[in-house]
């Protein structure tokens, strides 16, 4: 009996892991895994490294030849979705994209993941406070839908008790 249980545990774990979607962007050999707050403190350490960052869109600004998206960063899950509910944020960054970005496609409060290259920092403000924003030249971006954010999370729960469904 113990051998059957021991064989079923890895199979059950594998089934749960298989439910999670794969990452959307592939890391390069130049990709660093540090939060924007750390890059803002010591930008010279990271030069032109590649990053895969995500978070909540704060605002979109369009200029003559490019657009900038200010993002409150959150850690990413294994599928590179921002874990906004699990954290208070890991700093802010500015995602710079060529051309015009339609703000309705990148709504304030929406969740986004970007892949790109660090391109220095810029001094700015968050409210009345001075802030240093890492700049990311974006190669790829993805705005997450509510369905994508909830997809891949198994609806499995364990417990003992009595429940009432209305």
From TrEMBL:
Pfam families according to UniProt: Slp
Keyword Signal: yes
Classification via InterPro entries: OMP_Slp
Cleavable signal peptide: 1-22
Bilayer-crossing regions: none
Keywords: Lipoprotein, Signal
Keyword ATP-binding: no
Entries under PANTHER family matching the protein: OUTER MEMBRANE PROTEIN SLP (PTHR37530:SF1)
Designated name of the protein: Slp family lipoprotein
